[in-house]
Amino acid sequence: MPTEIADPSLPPALKPGQTIGILGGGQLGRMIAVAAARLGLKAHVYEPQPRSPAGDVAAQTFSASYTDRMALTAFARSVDVITYEFENIPTEALDLLGRLKPIRPNRRALEVSQDRLTEKTFLNDHACKTAPFAEVDSLETLKAAIATIGTPAILKTRRFGYDGKGQMRITAPAQAEAAWEGIGAVPAILEGHVAFSHEVSVIAARGLDGAVAVYDPGENLHLGGILATTTVPARLTASQRQDAVLAAARLLNALDYVGVMGVEFFVTEGGLVVNEIAPRVHNSGHWTQNGCAVDQFEQHVRAIAGWPLGDGTRHADVVMENLIGEAVERVPDIAREANAALHLYGKAEARPGRKMGHVNRIVPRQG
Ligand code: AMP
Description:
The protein contains eleven helices and 17 strands. By secondary structure, it is an alpha+beta fold. The protein has three domains: 19-103, 3-Layer(aba) Sandwich (Rossmann fold); 132-192, ATP-grasp fold, A domain (Dna Ligase, domain 1, 2-Layer Sandwich); 198-363, 2-Layer Sandwich (D-amino Acid Aminotransferase, Chain A, domain 1), CATH 3.30.470.
């Protein structure tokens, strides 16, 4: 089986029957676990909730809090490599786990992406343009930041923000106090509003041997701060496409990264502006499941397991639609559609804003 990277200086590749550990039991963890199973590997999931989308398809679930040192230790001992499906893992848990088993992607990738200030500084240091930004840690610094950056602007918490949460738009300086209270008066950054025509993202992977593979960029439509659809191919010029791919590769190399990463961009008249990076498989990469021979989940498993990266060439045009909240009620109709691949996460309750599944509608490529 040609699974080993033939380099004796690298750690050995995982063999069928060995186990990856996934921190987090959501849909991303579920799809990583399924990809691992297809490669003959097992998945153990660490998730505080007793039932979870990933736990449903894992060989074993450790249902305990991220402060439970005994459970964390037992989890680490039961697996061969540890990965994660969300960024906000407590540092103490990572310290403990990292002493027992390799964590891929590494801690540095998490540190950079967990904090918007560190992230934006890192991006600028690696030749990636971002929105103008300023550190905010009080109402006074917010007022000063508004004076420098101007309005419209967005106040974002430095940590724990996702899907547009922890953000306040500011259209006039008089809104400073309300915005500061609105985000809970916690450390933040003020970002200048970027006048973009559309948003794209790149899903990229780096193997244990340093090989890099980048998927075709996808075009993302957000509604209410949540990803609604991703369309490939994205509307990009050849040079924009190349800029996006090169930026992703540069960031992966700078972090000595192993695994899949998502990089989100704004497309502007002056070129691409990076919004944020996610050190994990990414919702905007779900199209790869039906558009490529090797999708982002298998690519991630290959990378963290020390296997060679797979072929991520796009063989179809795809529109991925997230099924959010009650949109899941359309499933019976979608199930009858031609060229539509359904991916459901097994969540019982369809709350507003909750991602219940997605559908990939494909148009096979001609010729
Ligand atoms: P975020 O949580 O930072 O990814 O932001 C969610 C969405 O809000 C983005 O995908 C954009 O549509 C919008 N957004 C965030 N930051 C900015 C910005 N600086 N300028 C314009 N739109 C933004």
